[in-house]
Design brief:
Elements lengths: L3 H16 L4 E7 L1 H4 L14 H10 L4 E3 L18 E2 L5 H14 L4 E5 L16 H17 L4 E5 L9 H19 L4 E4 L20 H15 L15 H9 L1
Parallel strand pairs: 1-2, 1-3, 1-4, 4-5, 5-6
Amino acid sequence: MINIYIKSLIFSLLLSTILYAGPTRIMPLGDSITQGINGSLAEKYQSSYRSSLWNLLNNADYDINFVGSQSQGYALLPSFDYNHEGYAWWTSQNIASHVYGFLANNPPDIILLHIGSNDVSPNQSNSSSVSGLNNILNQIDYYERDYNHPIRVILTTIIQRTTYHQTLRDYNRNLINLANTRIANGDKITLIDMEYGAGFTNHDYSDSVHPDGSGYHKMANVWFNALKNILPPPTAKDDYAWLIPVYHVILN
């Protein structure tokens, strides 16, 4: 007969396994819009969509952890999980050159990818090309293969500018075509629309390119709606009340 101590230990191990599978690790990945440039805000207050999204997820009881080596927004109050991989001025090719290392150092379960705003800048050649984005996705695939670690990429079209930018529109069309081709070939990509789906107006920008607080909050809503379809459902502690009588059965 198993004594009461052993029974209690077995139940505790079972309960901890059920109640805590660990947080879902999410990597915000991109350029200055992921970093959070917003007018003249100092870097320590630059929170992008990340703070609003963190609050939406946290308030809905999702168990998540933002990961990355960057920490802009660390002085913002109320505090949030500010880790990310967003880099001002970087193009998709810049990200592609470093993303494998980002993943190896801070392995995510989900990547939030908004990249290309610097690709379509006037000083870039062939700026509607998505070859850099394709390279990012290839590097993610290589990492998944090498580390046997699957990653869901939530890939979004990039936001427009205050003045309609046709090259940006062409880039987004190419992005959509690339994503659909890769999805058809088995890539774990969720494609969402930030260009039109976020509902931006000219009042949602701090300059011609970067959102202000209201714009970043609109972005957070789009990410949140996508994540709700991917994340494990939030579970309140009360949902495990049924385990209490099980505990007594085991001990008796």
